[in-house]
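Contributing: when you submit paired examples, paste them exactly as shown. First protein:
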Amino acid sequence: MRRFAFPLLAYAFAAVMTGTTMPTPMYAHYAAQLGFGVVTTTVVYATYAGGVLVALLLFGRWSDAVGRRPLLLGGLAAALISGAVFLAADSVTLLLIGRFFSGLSAGVFTGTATAAVIEAAPAPWRSRAAAVATVANIGGLGLGPVLAGLLVQYAPQPLRLSFVVHIAMVVLAAAAVITAPETSPRAGRLALQRLSVPPEVRSVFVVAGIAAFAGFAVTGLYAAVAPSFVVEVVGTANQAVAGATAGSIFAASAVAQVLANRMDPRRALVVGCAVLVAGMAVLAVALQTSSLPGLIAAAVTAGAGQGIGFSRGLAAIAARTPAERRAEVNSTYFGIGYIAISLPIVGFGLAAEVWGLRAAGVSFAVGVALLAAVCLAAVLVQTRSRRSAAAV
């Protein structure tokens, strides 16, 4: 079965990530059924990031010691628990538990499945394996709200059927992981994943980290409250449209990461930040004018900026990081991203309670644009300093 390991593991990766964004079109239904507002919605969404960070810290290095397959099966078990909890969810507490286990599954898969897919790639696909892993990861995130939006809008049992579908996907993914041979040589020992940045990479890391924070904050905004924007600001009650709007930011990110794969990292950070600023300008105008095409255009633009900045920022960091410190630096970088999809979104929820969705959304867009502009300026200053030093 070694020849099929590559597509099987890529499918398992995509299946797990699909489940992590499936609840997006359902938050409005849960809010109406359980009687909570936008603050609780953002807290439920942000709990996912807590699960991811726990998985990164506790299990980030385990697959090197025990193999990829046991960790992947553990991540699939967490995904099954999440789906089962959502099927029974009749309280905010169960929603929080479901999101936490969803985060655990994503946290385990983000590093382990990426490594497994790359290791399983046959020779003709080796140069494209990282891109396939990226598409499986981000593409799965984009598929989740689109698939769930269609089921919520057009199928029966809007708060149940999506999770039945995802549980079936996860069962198939478990069969895929069990069928695929182990890809890791099992070197190393069980240990907690350290989060740190060595001195020689800090200047690059700070700039890339700012870009990652800004980009992930926007993806978190769309994943958490895009349906609220569509329903309450635009006035469209169709959850399939809301799901497609949320999914478009991830689709754009995946495509941009693949297309920008060979771009110079510093140049890519400049381009990514500039595109992200443009996306936030489009978002602010779209919210002010209640424009659905504007919301989608902002998602596509911001997703492209996030994808370019994040992927090439990681490449810039990797180029400066000693090989023996790469795992902890990469985990720190991912940790910043997952903090960005949680804390700012909760802040948005609190602001929306006071100012309303439209004003909070515009303020959020301005804040992200300023952060991306700071990153853009920092990269330009660093580049100019390097040129001046080289000339001397």
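Second protein:
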Amino acid sequence: MIKKKKVEPLTGDSLLKKVRELETLSKEAKARECGYYTVTKNGVERVNMMKFLNALIDAEGIELDGKMGSNGQGGRSASYRIRVQSNLNLLIGAAYTKQMDLKPGDEFEISLGRKHIQLKQIDPSESED
């Protein structure tokens, strides 16, 4: 039996490039070719699909764990959709105001269109007194 030299598993851009080159192979074959396998004492080759798939997710820059807020807690992310509440109010949540770095007291001019609302922030220095 010929022993194959263990290759260091590919990561990042080199992993993505190699996977694209191997597009016709099965996912197990791709994982093996990218170095995501081990050889047991008995000489049996085992493909480590979880490590391979996690490396692909990392290489793509996909964040599955969710980003932690500044207070150390996760939370809901902005979906960029809101729904009219039962009292006919529209509530723009804190995720949006934080993303826009808005502070208490910031003012906006509201422009209504046929099916849209536009908010234009009022510059405090141009305030009408």
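If you have annotations for the second protein, write them as plain sentences, like these:
Residues 12-60 form one domain.
The radius of gyration is 26 Å.
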